[in-house]
Amino acid sequence: MANSGTFPAADVVGELNPGINTEVELDPISSQVAASKEQAEAKQKKKEMKKNDTLQTLKSGIIISAIIVAVVGAAFAINKKLREK
Predict the structure, then answer these.
(1) PANTHER family annotated for this entry (predicted)?
(2) Closest by alpha carbon to 21, among 9, 8, 30, 11?
(3) Rounded Cα gap, residues 38 and 33, in angstroms
């Protein structure tokens, strides 16, 4: 294998004195990956919240229906007892 290049020169002063370096070095690829990951997580969270909201609405409807059926059943039972007397 041919040695076509060498390692880039190290910034010794910048590494040993991080307070001197006031520029923020940003890797554009990793920031794009992070942004797309955040967007995907937000979309997934929104989807889960919508699903949970639908399930909560369904649960509430079932519970209310059960209470109404119980009250109507109790009313018929009381009415039947009163007619027997």
Answers:
(1) TRANSMEMBRANE PROTEIN
(2) 11
(3) 9
